[in-house]
Specification:
alpha/beta, 16% helix, six-stranded mixed β-sheet, three-stranded mixed β-sheet
């Protein structure tokens, strides 16, 4: 946890609804995380009140226990970063959406299953900052030699900011198109079996070596080759995004499912560009990019089920056309055809492509 900010841990035995929990930070550095382990009584609502002088944090927060459990609250305390916009809102953040166990709070693209679980619940704003003037950086991790997937994906990213699809994302208090910065390679510096902390180590290595800039407006994508796995891959996620609090770096991981789980993280085995793994990754990358800029600290835009904008439309594609090889597609970017999931339209509160 120390990698991700100053850590203050306290355990409280909560036995009555009137018990109060208070966490405060007097660290002048401005970045901190509080982790509270709370022992809950079944069926009782507890309120976690957070007091801080640092912008971007609101309260109170509550969670209802459905049974005896240990719930870990993780509160990310950050100053308003340069290059972000904090719209005026009185909405209270729902910390239960961010209270995920583990050392890193992540938001993921789940394996293939048509969305619809929360379509009736609107996306609302919860007070956190969003990103503007965002730049995408890519780390091609593993072995991408002789794989035209790098061309397919980079072509998409270079044109993403000018698409009608991305204009949907810009309505989430984001007035600028996303741009592509540059890419670098990493030949298994952290091995082939990865987890969240190793993914961030890959990002750090690229920045520390000078291969990529240290850019707090950046979204760093670690795109792993088909022979790599990650602790959530296939089983729980096809990709995810998160933020490193101490460095204020937003980053994402997306895996190539071609070898390990084409049936879980690919919509079709025959793809528009003849590379099923890379074509499948494009949709997940778009998903994570849209969520990162609209909810970079996991406290801005989401619904009552904790779903972010792209979550609500995951694995739904709307009207499609057929490529010459029979593959479905619904976008053309810089001359190449892609099948990309729909995006959640804030103005009409539904899924669409434009």
């Amino acid at each position: 946890m120390d990698t991700y900010g100053y850590m203050y841990r306290s355990s409280f035995d909560v036995s009555t609804p009137s018990s109060n929990l208070l966490a405060s930070d007097d660290d002048s550095g401005g970045n901190a995380q509080f982790q509270l382990t709370v022992y809950l009584t079944s069926g009782t609502t507890y309120i976690l009140v957070v007091t801080t002088y640092i912008p971007g944090v609101v309260g109170p927060f509550s969670i209802i226990a459905s049974g005896p459990a240990i719930v870990v609250f993780t509160l990310i305390v950050i100053p308003t970063p340069t290059g972000t916009t904090v719209p005026t809102s009185t909405t209270t953040a729902n910390n239960s959406c961010n209270a995920k166990p583990g050392s890193i709070v992540i938001a993921d693209t789940k394996p293939k299953a048509p969305s619809g679980r929360s379509l009736s619940s609107p996306i609302t704003y919860h007070g956190g900052p969003v990103m503007t003037n965002s730049v995408i950086y890519v780390i091609w991790y593993g072995n991408w030699t002789a794989n035209n997937g790098t061309t397919i994906i980079q072509n998409f990213l270079q044109g993403l900011g000018s698409t009608a699809w991305w204009n949907i994302t810009r309505r989430y208090n984001n007035t600028s198109p996303i741009t592509f910065g540059r890419s670098t390679t990493d030949s298994y510096s952290q091995g082939k079996i990865l987890n969240e902390s190793l993914i961030f180590a890959i990002v750090q290595r690229a920045i520390n070596s000078g291969a990529l800039p240290n850019d707090t407006n950046g979204v760093y994508f670690v795109l792993t080759s088909a022979d790599c796995t990650e602790s959530y891959f296939c089983r729980l996620a096809c990709g995810w995004h998160t933020v490193n609090v101490r460095s204020n770096l937003k980053y994402s991981w997306v895996g190539n499912p071609e070898q390990l789980c084409p049936s879980d993280c690919s919509y079709q085995l025959v793809s528009p560009n003849g590379n099923a793994g890379a074509d499948a990754m494009v949709s997940v990358i778009a998903h994570e990019a849209a969520e990162t800029v609209s909810d970079p600290y996991l406290n801005a835009w989401y619904d009552s089920a904790c779903d972010e904008n792209a979550d609500k439309c995951a694995w739904t594609f709307g009207s499609t056309s057929l490529a010459s090889n029979g593959a479905a597609y619904n976008m053309v970017v810089n001359g190449l055809k892609y099948l990309v999931q729909q995006n959640w339209r804030l103005t009409t509160q539904d899924c669409g492509m434009l």
